[in-house]
Amino acid sequence: MIDPKLLRSDLPGVAKALARRGFELDVAAFAAAEDERKGVQIEADRLRAERNANAKAVGFAKAKGQDAASLLAAGEALGSSLQEIEKRLEIIQARITDLQLGLPNILDASVPDGRDESANVEVRRWGVPREFAFTPKDHVALGERLGMDFEAAGRISGARFVVMSGKLAKLHRSLAQFMLDLHVQDHGYTEAYVPYLVHAAALFGTGQLPKFEQDQFAVRGDPGFYLIPTAEVPLTNLVREQIVAPEKLPLKFAAHSPCFRSEAGAAGKDTRGMIRQHQFDKVEMVQIVRPDTSYATLEEMVRHAEDVLKALELPYRVVSLCAGDTGSSSAKTYDLEVWLPSQKRFREISSCSNCETFQARRLQARWRNPETGKPELVHTLNGSGVAVGRALVAVMENYQREDGTVAVPRALVPYMGGTDLLQPA
């Protein structure tokens, strides 16, 4: 959530900043609501002061043995008026809060301008796409003979699901284990196991609610739950309503979890295969840091995600997302895109974002600044380290052989019990 003080002090400046995203801020609605709030707040303060003065007068009158009946009646009237004005103030403030919750984060100045992914800026590449002596198959064609069954998944759950079996299922599991080990052992993250069901408040804290309600899977019941769209949600909520001691920062968490997304806005996109599914696995990285270190941390997290792809020897590129393609909660985002031979292009496999105080303000996640001695908002960052299903797709396609077998990357052979080749059953 954007700082309410900034909205009150520089509404035109906020509108200009959000316009970079293509977001049109209703300045008139905000200004009118704020003017109304100020007027009602002044009236509430006046009534409160009068009630307090009246209460003192009652005390003096009683101390002198005077009749205080008229003062008491006036006090009751003031109290009733104050109660009504406070209710009105609460309604106005709720309306302002609803307006604030619909706003995306303000972008960092370094984010490139642009309306869509065509304006994203390539930062660097690693690896050289393999030259095939045959026409490479996509992962669906390869998977049909290796234990990937979309038909069975369709009978069980419908579209955008998959069943995997045998060595292919083991390769999928091995990828997740490898990623976790890398982040914990080499990058210093603390491994976490987190709930896959969360309350609405958790999604509110990280920015998925209320704006992206349609993208979530809600679970009926009392209390109601939501399936997590990413482990970012429970991991970031670990500091909800907490004041973290400065010596404990940075907090670095990594977790492997399934992710559940309705893909409400993706109708017709990537309907073939595992690229875009309702259920997929991901290893997530989250860091909670001091504000003055967050952009250095963002670069660090990108390198951590890159290390996964380098170890798997998969060609990739890093792109800085433009203003119009940056997620709502993020101030700056880098995407990692892996090369897919069947599509002859790079596809997203990781996204690393600095949310600055946007999530922390919703979560009331703070640290005690030793320089001021006061609690201040932390900065929160998250990144895929990486999407397991898309990594599997990339391994299958980049390591395929003409006979339909798939070589296992060297980094994964120990996790596969020595198996270095997937062969059709």
The portion of residues forming beta strands comes to 15-25%
For the largest beta-sheet, the strand count, sense and barrel status come to: 8 strands, mixed
Based on CA atoms alone, the radius of gyration comes out at: 27 Å
CATH architecture of the largest domain: 2-Layer Sandwich
Helix-and-strand structural type: alpha+beta
Quickly count the domains. Answer: 2
Apparent shape? elongated
**Which class of the largest domain in CATH terms?**
Alpha Beta
Along the chain, the helix and strand elements come as: HHHHEHEHEHEEHEEHEEEHEEEHEEEHEE
Instruction: List low-pLDDT spans.
Output: none
Total count of helical runs of at least 4 residues = 12
What is the CATH homologous superfamily assignment of the largest domain?
Bira Bifunctional Protein, Domain 2
Number of strands: 18
Q: Which topology of the largest domain does CATH recognise? A: BirA Bifunctional Protein, domain 2
Specify the helix fraction band.
25-40%
Numbering strands along the chain, what is their spatial order in the largest sheet?
1-11-12-13-16-10-9-4
Mean pLDDT: 96
Tell me what the structure shows.
The protein has about 425 residues and is of the alpha+beta class. The protein has two domains: about 25-100, Helix Hairpins; about 115-420, Bira Bifunctional Protein, Domain 2 (BirA Bifunctional Protein, domain 2), CATH 3.30.930. It has helices at about 5-10, 10-20, 25-65, 70-100, 140-145, 150-155, 165-185, 200-205, 230-235, 295-310, 360-365, 390-400, and strands at about 120-125, 150, 165, 190, 195-200, 215-220, 225, 245, 250-260, 280-290, 315-320, 330-340, 345-355, 365-370, 375, 380-385, 405, 420. An eight-stranded mixed beta sheet has the order 1-11-12-13-16-10-9-4. Strand 14 (about 365-370) and strand 15 (about 375) form a beta hairpin. The radius of gyration is 27 Å and the shape is elongated. The two termini are about 50 Å apart. The mean pLDDT is about 95.
